[in-house]
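COMPLEX REQUEST
Ligand: adenosine monophosphate
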Amino acid sequence: MRPSGRLHLGNYFGALQNWVALQDEFECVYGVADVHALTTEVGEAARSIAPNTREMVLDWLAAGVDPDRSLLYVQSQAPEVLTLHTLLSMSTPLGWLMRVPTFKERVRQMNETEENVSYGLVGYPVLQTADIIFAKAEWVPVGVDQAPHVELSREIVRRFNNLYGDTFPEPQVRLTESPSITGTDGANKMSKSLDNHIELAMSEEETRERVRTMVTDPQRARRADPGRPWVCNVYAFHALFNPGRREEIYRLCTTAGIGCVDDKAILADGVNDYFRAFRERRREFETAPRLVDETLAAGADRARAIARETLREVYDRIGLAPIP
Ligand code: AMP
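STATUS: Structure written out below.
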């Protein structure tokens, strides 16, 4: 994940919840893609990357990502991974990278020409490949939108293996359900940049405030009007936070037994109940001043040791002078 600071409900149900569950089945590697963040956060904006890393990792830990079972590392703290990226970039055709649909989209979003964007933005998938293969990962748990990137990683690996001999397994997509969570505006994907998000670490009052702004059935003008839960974003959220009360809420809404204000109060309580234990843990972790630093320092040591072994093998395959 790119270090985006405190995570929101979309990040949780789209990714983090699954990260926690996968630990029971696999040895997992979770990375903070802070070098990737430099493709957009340049100059003064880059100063936000380190504090955002800390906030995000606090959310990971509070959600149950367990550093005793999984490897947590920050990209920039594992320079061996960046070296692997450089070596992979030598055997990756530029045309493959320029054809990636998300590259073209990013260039458009930035209002730039392909000639003007940074070299690092073009190479984004190569760095992502280094992140995946330094530990010889077999599975990459992503949403379906990320599948083309993993496909490109497979091609980068295949080419390397063809040139220098079998070194890396071809990583495979392990599709997550990644439900797309809609924002409080009821129209767009939940996203920090649209300010339509609810952060996991918000206080109960902030959560209630955010839920109060949620868009409901636009045709329900008065409290006495019956609502249409099937078009209501608040109702959709009850599936996550009040699954046992959906029928009751449906009935009360369609008979005007409750109004939207009441409905939102029920949802806010549901969100607050759901994240109460998470928030308590997070507060404890926030006040343990060295926890994140120590977790990431230990993770960096482990990631570097693994990547160093991989690099030794890669140097040997290519025929570079051995690392002393
Ligand atoms: P981002 O910082 O946007 O790259 O998000 C980090 C992770 O959260 C990615 O795996 C995204 O797919 C996931 N994610 C972000 N926003 C949403 C959303 N609104 N619904 C579901 N998943 C999301």
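REMARKS: The chain has 14 helices and four strands. The longest helix spans residues 260-287.
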